[in-house]
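Input.
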Amino acid sequence: MGLDSELEEENDDERGAGGKTASSCLMCCMGLLAFPLVLFLLMWNEKRFVCKNKVVLEAAEKAVWVECDAGKTQDVFAFFTCPVKQSSLQTFTMAAFNGDVDSNVSADIPFSFTAASGSQYVEMYQCQEECTHERRNDKPVETCTYTMVWAHHKINSNEFVQTKDAVTARKVGCPAFELVPSGNPEFPRNLHMGSSTNFADAILAGKGNDTSYTINHRLVQMLVPTEPVPLSAFRAAFTGPLDPSSGVNPWTRPMVLAASSLAVSVTGTHLESCAQPAQLGCIRLSFLQNKPADVSVLAHVSSAGEVGPQTFSGGWGCEASSKQWLLPTKMTKDEMIASLKEEGQSSVWVIRAAGIILSVLSVFCVLQPISAAADIVGDCVRMMPCGSLIEDKLEGMVDWLVCVISLNVGCTCSLLVIALVWAFMRPVRLGADTTDLCAGSGGIGGLLLRRRCGCEEGDGHSGPPPEGAPEAAAEGRRRRGKRVRLGDGGRMSDEAALAGRLAAPGAADGALGARAGAWVALPPHQMSGHVALVLADRDAAGDFNVIVENGHRRRLDLRCSTHRQVIGRRAPQL
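Output.
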């Protein structure tokens, strides 16, 4: 009888075929809705990451290092790391954080500090309630405990539990609480509760006031205040209570804080309205600042030395944007670029992991009708001899199969979306290190690569160099038995003009010397076209020395079997 009763209860608990079908169809619809949304989330995450890194890479390529002298920098996308002019920092008074509440707060509380940014943090000592719920003897029981805490917002004590046990617990955990008619008191009238932050309008970075760069307000906002402001130097200006017995009860309201009601704490980190031990209604203030000695900036610099955002072109799925960066430390350009690349990496990987897991769960929901069908069939099989065993095996096998399919489909689709975003938005990067350009590139892909890089290889026989090219370059090419033409979409006149500027070492004045293995740098105004190349002699490794637009030098390995591009190597001026 006992076994039969358990089976009857189990059968009563199980849903019928109609309920299982409806539930599985609902989960299937939820999965069909969630799956494309999750894939879109992954696509958005990768697009954001790729576009952000595209901007950083473009900044690394185009930004020019400049000295800490704005007079020598005119209308250029620049990187500089310079000392901050301490005289340009802003003086923060109490009005900077509470002026909209009380215009006389600076006179009442004579305190100030100088920094690029600052914040004020106001807390009050209050009674806090924490309640737990449990069942005792089949009855719900609520147990509340009370403690005194420093809180940056008012805790509403009107919502506290008013049972006898709760009132008794409050008397133990929150002394003097019952003496206050309204419970936790209000914050002072002349201060903002919680955190208030302010930033300097602008600061200067450089070696002199007249030749310093002007850091705008948006960049200054990147200087988040994190360093505590020491208050020991202001101890004499505050004459508040030094022992608990002095002064009025701290919960007395209304309250307007002033120098006579505040004192510097023993540690020198807070302004306090009561001496320790703190009591209900005590107020304490702390301050943070950011006062950098040096800043590293990556931004556009105008002719007046004013720093502003640099415009970056869009393309390949990315929109045009304007960016500027500041870090409060002295560093090299490469170090700053590496730091910018690291920003947001953790959030990207979290979204990737969450997206893959959610896509697997979405597919699992879509396949729930299959599991429901197996469950319904199992209910029928259970009426057969040994039916329970067969039911368990059948349902277990189907559930295992659904899990495997969900895992494979979800992971495959997620990774495919990630790969397609990268393939669409960064096609050249897929083979940037070893891309077959000329000799081994065939078909449409090879044609596109050849057109993009401007490299054409001859028929394997030596040929005449461009007009005006150095004899050394021609001889080097003849020795290798190849004819290579480097251009910018067919504008050979520009190339020839640039080549004509070259001469062998020891040439007449005004000509640029070219030698094997040397970088040749021409003034920017002589570089027209998308890529302006100059043929010079190859070095021992077979590398040509070239010049590209905007004065940025790159070394290209153009032996027409591979193409390797090294970005960020600076070339000395000849």
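The first strand starts at residue 64 and ends at 65.
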